[in-house]
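Annex B. Sample input.
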Amino acid sequence: LIARVEVKEGRLEEYVRSAEPVDNAVEKSEPGMLFHNFDADPDDPLAFTWTALLANSDAFLLHTANAQVLDYVGLHAELGEGFTLEI
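Annex B, continued. Sample output.
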């Protein structure tokens, strides 16, 4: 799973601060999550990529229902501009 996100101008610091607890929570609460990472785009300071490797479909469904992830998606609606998802 690859999620590419863009942050609104002036909201970068708040956005990055909100990503770390989500990343930590996913790694601790999802046993089927094999790899989960949040990376900055080296060419665009407002662009980031979430990368996730999941064990199976059940792990994917658990991830999409994780309260921490859902909270992050809601916050992204406020702080972010773009969001694309590749599965």
